Amino acid sequence: MSIEEAIELLKQHGYKTTGKRKDILAFFSRADGYRTAKELIRHLEESYDGISFDTVYRNLHLYNDVGILETTELNGEKHFRFNCTDHHHHHFICKDCGKTKEISVCPMDAVQSDLHQYEVEDHKFEIYGLCPACKSA
């Protein structure tokens, strides 16, 4: 997702695009993989002295609710990244650095026959481990 697409989604849902919100979008546009709220707060503190955890968490959850960000949980903590919008796929997620690698195989292809009388509305498949850089470190 691009910053422009994210701003358009905010507008479609009736939200203003403040300077802080644009800075949050810029942070995630530069992020390579999932990032924590703590990382975002450290980044925003450079420009917004005394920014509150509430402001950051409220915006992170807003962005998740409107489809700008997607979340996962690593080591008991929520991590966020820009939502992938171009095509259906899944991710390998590095537990150390949060980087992701796209997985083109979808496990739903294998289980669909077991669910022939069920209506699947959504699914999520993630694999966790270490990327090559973290594994060799």
Automatic annotation (TrEMBL):
<dbReference type="InterPro" id="IPR043135">
    <property type="entry name" value="Fur_C"/>
</dbReference>
<dbReference type="InterPro" id="IPR002481">
    <property type="entry name" value="FUR"/>
</dbReference>
<dbReference type="InterPro" id="IPR036388">
    <property type="entry name" value="WH-like_DNA-bd_sf"/>
</dbReference>
<dbReference type="GO" id="GO:0045892">
    <property type="term" value="P:negative regulation of DNA-templated transcription"/>
</dbReference>
<dbReference type="InterPro" id="IPR036390">
    <property type="entry name" value="WH_DNA-bd_sf"/>
</dbReference>
<dbReference type="GO" id="GO:0005737">
    <property type="term" value="C:cytoplasm"/>
</dbReference>
<dbReference type="GO" id="GO:0003700">
    <property type="term" value="F:DNA-binding transcription factor activity"/>
</dbReference>
<feature type="binding site">
    <location>
        <position position="131"/>
    </location>
    <ligand>
        <name>Zn(2+)</name>
    </ligand>
</feature>
<comment type="similarity">
    <text>Belongs to the Fur family.</text>
</comment>
<feature type="binding site">
    <location>
        <position position="94"/>
    </location>
    <ligand>
        <name>Zn(2+)</name>
    </ligand>
</feature>
<feature type="binding site">
    <location>
        <position position="88"/>
    </location>
    <ligand>
        <name>Fe cation</name>
    </ligand>
</feature>
<keyword id="KW-0804">Transcription</keyword>
<dbReference type="Pfam" id="PF01475">
    <property type="entry name" value="FUR"/>
</dbReference>
<keyword id="KW-0805">Transcription regulation</keyword>
<protein>
    <submittedName>
        <fullName>Zinc-specific metallo-regulatory protein</fullName>
    </submittedName>
</protein>
<feature type="binding site">
    <location>
        <position position="123"/>
    </location>
    <ligand>
        <name>Fe cation</name>
    </ligand>
</feature>
<keyword id="KW-0963">Cytoplasm</keyword>
<keyword id="KW-0408">Iron</keyword>
<keyword id="KW-0238">DNA-binding</keyword>
<dbReference type="GO" id="GO:0008270">
    <property type="term" value="F:zinc ion binding"/>
</dbReference>
<feature type="binding site">
    <location>
        <position position="134"/>
    </location>
    <ligand>
        <name>Zn(2+)</name>
    </ligand>
</feature>
<keyword id="KW-0479">Metal-binding</keyword>
<feature type="binding site">
    <location>
        <position position="97"/>
    </location>
    <ligand>
        <name>Zn(2+)</name>
    </ligand>
</feature>
<keyword id="KW-0862">Zinc</keyword>
<keyword id="KW-0678">Repressor</keyword>
<dbReference type="GO" id="GO:0000976">
    <property type="term" value="F:transcription cis-regulatory region binding"/>
</dbReference>
<dbReference type="GO" id="GO:1900376">
    <property type="term" value="P:regulation of secondary metabolite biosynthetic process"/>
</dbReference>
